[in-house]
Amino acid sequence: MKNDTVDKLVIFLAKRDGIDKLVKTFQYVSKLVHWHTEATHPDIANRIKQWEVASGLSRKAFRTGRFLTGFNALRRSPGSTPTFKFLAVLANAGEMVYFFFDHFLWLSRIGTLDPNLARKMSFISAFGESFGYIFFIISDFIIIREGLEAEKKLVTSKEESKDAKESIRKIKADRVMRLMAVAANVADLVIGVADIEPNPFCNHAVTLGISGLVSAWAGWYRNWPS
């Protein structure tokens, strides 16, 4: 059992998304620790803040070229109906804007580009991110609803065949994964809103920290080898 867990961890960390979720955990744990220690231990808080900033910047560097995955997602999974095709185009377009302008945000924050561009790039990136997540969430809820309807039909038919049981198992497994996706996207939407329209709730360190960890751990669950 222990060796199996280690093998899965190795596979998980070999993925770009696996590394991203691990570093994202570092980033938002450090944000919460910084908030907790800022008043009582300023020296420790400053060191933790550096860890948070370094984690955020390293994630941006590691996501170089990630915006191209949107094209691949549309090519591989265009959607089964015109509605899903439309939602997929909007969702992936928003995500591509997010990842594309995230490159310029990273370059401006490390001083390669004019640092004054950071705020504008952050706004555009967060707007694209939030726009895309809204349509990802809608798509997942529609598929979850369709899955519940299909499962209900199988249950009410009282079919005891192996194929029926397997279909129900797949529907339930897919529902769990989609609920994890919804949790991650809602959490990231909160983080995006904090950049688009700063407000006391979304921009509070606890809100951002918890949202970041929900997103990271939901993504961790979805990417963990089965």
Automatic annotation (TrEMBL):
Parts of the chain that traverse the membrane: 84-101, 121-144
Membrane association type: Multi-pass membrane protein
GO cellular component: peroxisomal membrane
Localization in the cell: Peroxisome membrane
InterPro entries in the record: PEX11
Listed GO biological process terms: peroxisome fission; regulation of peroxisome size
Chief location of this protein within or outside the cell: membrane
Keywords: Membrane, Peroxisome, Peroxisome biogenesis, Transmembrane, Transmembrane helix
Role description: Involved in peroxisomal proliferation. Promotes peroxisomal duplication, aggregation or elongation without fission.
Subunit structure: Homooligomer. Interacts with ARC5 and FIS1B on peroxisomes.
Family: Belongs to the peroxin-11 family.
Protein name (record): Peroxisomal membrane protein 11B
Organism: Quercus lobata
